[in-house]
Write a structure and sequence with these properties.
The chain has one helix and ten strands; from the N terminus they run βββββββαβββ. With 185 residues, it is mainly β.
């Protein structure tokens, strides 16, 4: 501060992350060269983060209500997927699709800010291989993937690492979607 007195800040953080997940897969071989794969997956994530800051003034700790906060965050994701694989002497095919629905919500109890995001995404994949001979083949593949932000990256709290460095997440971050295409010989 301007008078040259030290700034003393005390921070306590309590984080709880609970992740529950269930998955079931089914494979049906039509014959030796063709099979169908089906599946379903669900997950539930609950994150509770409480941060309390206090500053030292007049020889006692005083809670800093401008920096303290409490976040309750929930994320539910459900997915279904299917793929068909077919192999012949020269060709290998795989076609698949995954559909995913995510519902997330969060509330910062100290300031009442609410976070909500609900979306449905589709993720196709294709893999085609041609076996020229025993040592040579050509492969084409396409897939679409999702990469969600880490929970720390979503957490909007300001964390004081030291007097010059703070860290803060952004609750409005969206998942990254990538499309990959690969052709190999």
């Amino acid at each position: 501060n301007s008078m040259g007195l030290p700034n003393i800040l005390d921070g306590k953080s309590n984080n709880s992350i609970r992740i529950y997940s269930a998955k079931a897969d089914f494979v049906y071989p039509f014959n030796r060269n063709t099979k169908l794969e089906l599946g379903i997956k669900g997950s539930n994530v609950e994150v509770n983060t409480k941060v309390d800051y206090a500053y030292w003034i007049n020889n006692r700790w005083v809670k800093d209500f401008t920096r303290s906060n409490y976040l309750l965050y929930k994320e539910n994701t459900g997915a279904v997927y299917a793929s068909v694989k077919k192999n012949t002497k020269k060709w290998d095919f795989e076609l698949g699709m995954r559909s995913e629905q995510t519902n997330l919500s969060g509330v910062q109890l100290a300031n009442g800010k609410v976070l909500r995001n609900n979306y449905i995404k589709f993720f196709p994949n294709v893999n085609i291989s041609y076996n020229i001979d025993k040592k040579n083949n050509i492969n084409f593949s396409y897939n679409k993937r999702i990469n969600r932000p880490n929970y720390d990256d979503l957490n909007p709290f300001v964390y004081f690492v030291d007097s010059l460095f703070i860290k803060q997440g952004n609750a409005a971050l969206q998942p990254a979607i990538s499309n990959g295409i690969e052709i190999t010989y």
